[in-house]
Amino acid sequence: MAVWKIVPALACGCTIVLKPAEETPLTAIRLAELAHEAGFPAGVFNVVTGRGETAGAALVKHLLVNKVTFTGSKEVGHIIGRQCADDLKRASLELGGKSPVIVLYDCDPRKAIEGAAGAIFFNHG
Q1: Full set of structural domains in the chain with CATH
Q2: How buried is residue 19: exposed, middle or buried, by Cβ count under 10 Å (0-12/13-18/19+)?
Q3: pLDDT > 90 fraction of the chain, expressed in percent and rounded
Q4: Which residues are CB-neighbours of 28 under 8 A, at least 6 positions away?
């Protein structure tokens, strides 16, 4: 899921600081290793590990961070959103819930069920 946010930013010429969830740092570290092996210049793709309330909060508050994207809980999203608003910093927040879908009365129920199941479990690991 991180790649969905990383690739467009890199394509636009931005540098990245990825702070993965404290429970899942290894894939982000490996991704950074692969970027290094692929020849990314130093400082273009960075990973900071640690707890959200310390490492994540420091990143959100850092003056050189121009945009914050966050996927997670509404509670943490509120904290990040407030901080970004106070700092006049751009933010993209994907909060709470799990793969919402709208099913209209005239749909094919079988296709709606398949689509909803696919939306929920596409990134199940």
Answers
A1: 2-97 (3.40.605.10)
A2: buried
A3: 76
A4: 2, 18, 20, 47, 49
User: Are 61 and 85 a contacting pair, CB within 8 Å?
Assistant: no
Query: DSSP of 63-118, one letter per residue?
Result: TT--EEEEEE-HHHHHHHHHHHHHTT-EEEEEESSS------TTS-HHHHHHHHHH
Strand bridging mode 67-72 / 45-47: unpaired
Is 86 buried (19+), middle (13-18) or exposed (0-12) by CB count in 10 A?
exposed
List, for residues 57-103, the tens digit of each pLDDT value. Answer: 999 999 999 999 998 899 999 999 999 999 999 999 988 776 778 88
What is the arithmetic mean of pLDDT over 41-62? Answer: 96
Amino acid at 49: T
pLDDT for residue 124: 66
